Amino acid sequence: MPIERQNLRKILATVSNYKFEDIARQDQYKKLSLELESIISENGFDVIWENHKLLVLLTEKLDMIINLYQEQELESKAHLWSMNDCVQWLQDIGVKDPETKVSFVDRGIVISGNLNLEYSPVRELPPQLFSVGESLELRGSQVRRLPDTLIFIGLHLDLADSLIQELPSGLSFVGGSMNLKDSKIQSLPDALHKIGKHLYLQDSLITDIPYSLEIEGNVYAKGCPQALIDKLRGMKLLGKIKGLIKV
């Protein structure tokens, strides 16, 4: 891959944000990223650019990472679900009259009603899922990833004791409570502007939340860092949290 000097930092910054759903790909990505970091930290950009062997080595690592990402993108496009796929999936998880609960819009799949996968062996959600009309309950489920397209949940989002490690960056609205107790979630997306009821953070990995977030109910923050508790109290004073801060 030919590389222009002024684009080198931009390319490195881009690949540093890649994420992979497949565990083997993620492990390979981590290995290549560490090798990239080692080359850069030991030599610096100026030295690398003037040293043909180092530049070739760096470029090879970048090519391998970009190829991994492109492979994932191609697979994702190949696995987009049809209406029949969605109806069958809803039927498999026990939703009654599934054909009446799903529709397609330009931005993805809209499912009305509840999706209750608590302690379910089901491992995936529809990849283009855009909106859930009522609650999305994944407590103790085997689902490992929320679709990047998901932005709206009409009622509750329950990720307590789940395998989900990250919320979609575009998730902007949860109409009911959000339960992250004992979850693997480390941060809330900046796009999230409204939680319609309570936020449960007990013994979670959350260390910060967006100032722009409005919470209509209580925040349960037992076991959270003191800096986060102080921020929550400040948000309460500003009227962004309508309920109590429970510690």
From TrEMBL:
This is Leucine-rich repeat domain-containing protein.
